[in-house]
């Protein structure tokens, strides 16, 4: 078993490793980021990066998007998962926001927009440089956080709450850091031997080392 972990101290190397690392979505401004985040839900960042250039060429800003109809938007995002709902959400929020400078960057305002939950809002805030109001929990964090032992369960909202209670606000970028760790090292089949968190990781001490011994 790993020793009792002082997480605010133990998480620092992970946050430092991925500090300032850009989200895998390609974007040039907050408008493109917001649209990309909505489109990427239940789809892959890689796919959205393939779709986005023509979409943003046709609708370069929030004002242009606010004037489109489902019929004009479908050809650009028809291959995206759940595109029918995402089309409605994008048109609705564009008509509400109207201009790029009106894009909100508080958690409450973002989650009030159609198609944006806490995970998406936390990503948008982080990438736009707004102060963290929560912890980003995606499918990678749902895998990584319980393995580390910093949280338990599989409910993203409960995992976020546990991490927020464990770490001070200035360390809430740990969510994105865990996501990057999950993409690169703590995969479904983890590469424990090269992970910088193995000293404090519950999975490493209770599962990986035991499997090596056998």
TrEMBL record:
Domain HhH-GPD: 39-184
Domain of life: Bacteria
Any Pfam family hit: HHH
GO biological process: base-excision repair, AP site formation
The keyword Protease is annotated on this UniProt entry: no
Record PANTHER family: A/G-SPECIFIC ADENINE GLYCOSYLASE/ENDONUCLEASE III, ENDONUCLEASE III
Protein name, as recorded: Endonuclease III
């Amino acid at each position: 078993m790993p020793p009792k972990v002082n997480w605010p101290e133990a998480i620092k190397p992970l946050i430092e490793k991925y500090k300032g690392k850009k989200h895998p979505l390609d974007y040039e401004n907050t408008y493109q980021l917001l649209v990309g985040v909505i489109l990427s839900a239940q789809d892959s960042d890689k796919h959205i990066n393939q779709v986005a250039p023509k979409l943003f060429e046709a609708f370069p800003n929030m004002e242009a998007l606010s004037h489109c109809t489902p019929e004009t938007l479908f050809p650009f995002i028809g291959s995206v998962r759940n595109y029918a709902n995402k089309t409605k959400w994008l048109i609705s929020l564009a008509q509400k926001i109207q201009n790029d400078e009106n894009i909100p960057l508080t958690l409450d305002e973002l989650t009030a927009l159609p198609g944006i939950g806490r995970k998406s809002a936390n990503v948008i805030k982080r990438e736009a440089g707004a102060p963290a109001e929560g912890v980003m929990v995606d499918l990678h964090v749902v895998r990584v956080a319980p393995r580390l032992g910093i949280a338990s369960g599989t409910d993203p909202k409960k995992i976020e709450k546990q991490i927020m209670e464990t770490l001070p606000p200035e360390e809430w970028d740990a969510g994105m850091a865990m996501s990057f760790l999950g993409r690169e090292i703590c995969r479904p089949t983890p590469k424990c031997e090269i992970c910088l968190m193995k000293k404090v990781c519950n999975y490493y001490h209770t599962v990986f080392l035991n499997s090596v011994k056998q």
